[in-house]
Amino acid sequence: MKSHRQFLVLAVLFGLLNPLSAFALFQDCKDLFPGQKIPSTQQVGRDLCFDSFAIYYSPSDKKPIYTVEKLSREQLLAPHPKRSNQFYEEARLPLAERSLLSDYRGSGYDRGHNAPAGDMTNERSMTQSFSLANMMPQARQNNQGIWAKNVEEPTRLYVKRAAGDIYVYTGSTGNSGSIGSGRVTIPSHLYKLVYDPSKNLAWAYWIENTNEATMTPPISYQDLVQKTGIDFQLALNTGTTKAQAATPEPKSNKAMVGGWYPVFFDDYSSIKIDQLINHIKEGQVVSIEIQYDRNSDLAKKIVAQIALQTSITPVLVHSSPPDSVTVTYERNRVTAIIRSR
């Protein structure tokens, strides 16, 4: 009973310190937005910064309202890390607002990336892209077919040919029901907005979230604003058709901002444990959440080792991923979500 009361107190404090708002701030990652201008919307959400992308997240729909990326030719032509396929629940969100691995089990829907794993240029960003906060319930054939081949890949090809930075917003809208006990909203439509400031050019892909969806011509920026109710604050000069060069934005030397990152355990690793303990003792870690499904013994062993040797006692959270022939290892995996300073 005491631990339950403590949990409620912490939950209330989290809500007070992190109030929901229709005015996203993105203080740690404004440089990801064109002109550092944050989109305007009446939808209430939470802003989440990662190293290479940002998410405006809906606690009611339990999926992104939108994500934003700042991409360049140099980024996408550089060597890319191997796709991790290691999904995890977003520890920055209160439990009541998270989508869970179990929500997707048996749903028939993929965990569809908003900010694509294929855009990530280092292992840390790749890992962060598998946060469930970056996922939406997406029709399986849509995700693996038309979306990957006719939306994501053409966007990357455009970026690779572009002269400057390209900004990409991805999101979904509409309501076609929900999945899981957490009632994660199934969107009716998906979109990807591409903005090239150097050419005063923007367009959006807009497709149904169905396995039978077919490609239609891209829609205009104005049409997307009308369909989504989001003003993305793009500095488009709609009064001219001539491409205009935009003033280059100053390069940012900002350090990585992804203050939360996962460490995966498929078995006990003294090396990983020692690294975590050293980081804690060096003052680099604020808190740790341990997520597990079947392997409670491993999870408890990790918690015990960290608690024994440091001042931090990790929070233990039971979490069940969906069954899948391609990711069966998830059921026995233990994930440590680290909050760094």
UniProtKB/TrEMBL annotation:
Q: Name one GO molecular function term.
A: metal ion binding
Keyword Ribosomal protein carried by entry: no
* Signal peptide boundaries: 1-24
Keyword Signal (UniProt): yes
Tell me where on the tree of life, at the top rank, the source sits: Bacteria
What the entry lists under Pfam families is as follows:
Endonuclease_NS (PF01223)
UniProt xrefs under Gene3D superfamilies: Extracellular Endonuclease, subunit A
Q: Keywords, A to Z? A: Endonuclease, Hydrolase, Metal-binding, Nuclease, Signal
Per UniProt, residues of the ENPP1-3/EXOG-like endonuclease/phosphodiesterase domain are 50-239
Name the SUPFAM superfamilies on file. His-Me finger endonucleases
- Which residues are listed for Mg(2+) binding in this entry? N143
Q: Where is the DNA/RNA non-specific endonuclease/pyrophosphatase/phosphodiesterase domain?
A: 49-243
Catalytic residues (positions): H113 (proton acceptor)
Q: What is this protein called?
A: Endonuclease
Give the species. Answer: Polynucleobacter hirudinilacicola
Q: What is the lineage of its organism?
A: Bacteria, Pseudomonadati, Pseudomonadota, Betaproteobacteria, Burkholderiales
